[in-house]
Amino acid sequence: MSIEDERVVPKGVVAGSGDLRRDLDLLQNAVADQAVYLVVRNDDISGKFIFISFVLDNAPVRSKMLYASTKNTVIRQLGVEFFHPIVFINDKDELSGDAYETLLGTGGAKPLSSSEESLAAVKQMELLNGGGIERRKQQLVGTGSSGLNMSVDGHLLDNLRGLDTGQTATIVISGDEQFRVDGTATATGLGDIASTIPTHSPTYTVARFGNGYYFVYCCPSGSRVRDRMVYASSKQGLLNDLKSGGIDFIKVVEVGDPDEIVADERPLPAPAAQTFHKPRGPRRR
């Protein structure tokens, strides 16, 4: 199965040989160097299938993100109770009969009992649903990460430093996964740049008004899901790169459609400091 036009579609069926190790060798010869989901009958466990997410290390970042974020949904739709084990492969050599034990992660372990299998299914369902205290802790801790590490085009910083007052630059992520300037325009203020922003896909816009820079991330409602994910995950990394290059922003704005931009160049107010008030003690009698 592969993802095409934001839909999971079947790519074909490989006739099995009756031997799981030999079937894995057949799959290795059948799959191309592209991201796919594979479902293989598990001959060792009756009624079970092996679900393989096959995404090579050198696959484009977009494909890695798309297949990683869609995997759990596909498994839930097909029925998590039908799959054991669920594995991820990023090297074609691992999809082979020689790597059978490593692939299954059994190490010669005996098949699970019915109670162990039920417990494993519950744990797998919790994982697929994003449950678990430790995972949520990690999500909270990771909120300040810089996202994807896209590279910055060599001329990007020079183009931004060269902006005159009243000029804007549209930044996009190119096919070779680099931030680059896609065009420039003129505007009198934040409220005037909506007409310069494309409405069919996400973009970043850097504007210069007065002696300062403004950053606008726009993600129109009609954008493709894949583009939304890539641009949202890359925004903080771009801001960090620009700051490291000496470009500080008076204001960072994030909107959906361009017409949501408010004509207000004032910096966002800093959050008010919270003061601690000592509670009153008990009344004296």
UniProtKB/TrEMBL annotation:
Residues 1-105 form the ADF-H domain. One of its GO terms (biological process) is actin filament depolymerization. It is found in: Cytoplasm, Cytoskeleton. InterPro entries: ADF-H (IPR002108), ADF-H/Gelsolin-like_dom_sf (IPR029006), Twinfilin (IPR028458). GO terms for molecular function: actin filament binding; actin monomer binding. It holds the Pfam family Cofilin_ADF. Residues 263-285 are annotated as: Disordered. Keywords: Actin-binding, Cytoplasm, Cytoskeleton, Repeat. The keyword Repeat applies. One of its GO terms (cellular component) is cytoplasm. SUPFAM superfamilies: Actin depolymerizing proteins. Belongs to the actin-binding proteins ADF family. Twinfilin subfamily. Interacts with G-actin; ADP-actin form. This is ADF-H domain-containing protein. It comes from Ogataea polymorpha. The lineage of its organism: Eukaryota, Fungi, Dikarya, Ascomycota, Saccharomycotina.
